[in-house]
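My current task is to audit a protein record that another person submitted. What it holds is a sequence and that sequence's fold in token form. Thanks in advance; the entry in question is below.
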Amino acid sequence: MLGMFKRDPKKKLQQDYERKLQAAMEASRNGDMRANATLTEEAEAIRAEILRIEAQE
């Protein structure tokens, strides 16, 4: 019964992933390729965590 109040960690990770990709795109548009690479790498790490969680379900 209390399970319906539990937060979905996958949903939060998905939002973080999308935010990182958005920031990477903006960095790329501003010409900051180093920041773009760093943010993209962080986004891919978050994506890997999402896939790990999905595999456990």
